[in-house]
Amino acid sequence: MWYNATMKILFICMSNICRSPFCEYVFRRIVQEDEVLSQNVEWVKSSAVFNKSFVINQKAKLALLREGFDEEYILSHKPTFKWGKGREYLKEADIIIGMTKSNAFFLPRKYRKKFVLLSQIASGEYKPIPDPVLIKDQEKYHAAMDEIKKYLVDYANILKSQFAQ
User: Which residue from 32, 80, 88, 102 has the highest number of Cβ atoms inside 10 Å of its Cβ?
Assistant: First the structure.
């Protein structure tokens, strides 16, 4: 249903500093490490739909370090925005994966038909993925990101089975 021969996947959130870059990095690694996915997913990117931000959130950086990503690689993330580089990503993406229903509201209308929710596409049920930027405690932040990672793994397994058919 949500794939093409070479799929382009865009993760979005409000500011592209926590959830969506985490999804981009983790899902890109999942794709690169899987033979079926790597042959069928052309790119994985992320963008913001509401706030224009300039650097990745410090807690997101720590969560990605915890996942084993190199600090230099993490800091190379430059948040994109729907009216900048993100506009190109929105246009090219085959699927736009958001965290909450409100993400769709901030998308330009013409791209909403490509929009799905991460929790829904991974589990079949909608559960909003709250913005962890307000979480003060790093361990609670990690727990929030672990939930996102579970959805990413589940979605990867779904995609893999679809591509294998």
Answer: 80
